[in-house]
Amino acid sequence: MGRRKLEMKTIANNSSRLVTFSKRRSGLFKKANEISTLCATEVAIVVFSPGGKPFSFGQPNVEKLVHLFQKKNRQHQHFDDFTLSTAKINRERINKLNQKVIDLEAKIEIENRRSKMLEEQQGKCKFEIKQLIEELDLDQLLKLQKKLQHLFEESTRRVKEHEASNSLLLLANASPSKFELSNG
């Protein structure tokens, strides 16, 4: 008959909990001894009972390994402080970038709603304009055509002005070293 798997939760019965702790503690120390022997390693384990009493196992001994651990830990403290400082800075950067993403997503949502509203209005306007055009006579249609042609030409001229202005801004903002002439 095989062992059944126990659910990992605190044992409610106090005496059962103490018995389980005692058995598992000795099993834990046995495994620590095995890994120390098989792998030629130094091992230290400190376990506190449910009553708060400490139990320890160390190979070669706990005090020596704790002292060695503390010594190594002090040597790496400067590195750890630097690592923590860097991690804090990175965390702050990530938080700022996340906030920017949230802000941009909100702006995108607003623009999407605005775009949808404009498309709806544009559809209504097209329908209304089409109805108005159908009611015009030939003379009125010719006048409208001239006005639309003038409007088209004016808008084309304005687009070209903006493109030229943007090109000049790009040139003005470009690095001066790209456009310097050699004095040779």
Automatic annotation (TrEMBL):
Pfam families associated with the record: SRF-TF (PF00319)
SMART domains assigned: MADS
UniProt cross-references to InterPro entries, sorted A to Z: TF_MADSbox (IPR002100), TF_MADSbox_sf (IPR036879)
Superkingdom, taxonomy of origin:
Eukaryota
Q: Which residues form a coiled coil?
A: 87-121
Q: Is Nucleus tagged as a keyword?
A: yes
Cellular component annotations (GO), alphabetically ordered: nucleus
Keyword check for DNA damage, yes or no. no
GO molecular function terms listed in the Swiss-Prot or TrEMBL record:
DNA-binding transcription factor activity, RNA polymerase II-specific; protein dimerization activity; RNA polymerase II cis-regulatory region sequence-specific DNA binding
- Per the record, the major location class is nucleus
List, alphabetically, the Gene3D superfamilies matched. Answer: Transcription factor, MADS-box
**Cell compartment(s), UniProt:** Nucleus
Q: Which UniProt keywords apply?
A: Coiled coil, DNA-binding, Nucleus, Transcription, Transcription regulation
Ranges for domain MADS-box: 1-61
The name of this protein is MADS-box domain-containing protein
- Species in which this protein is naturally found: Carnegiea gigantea
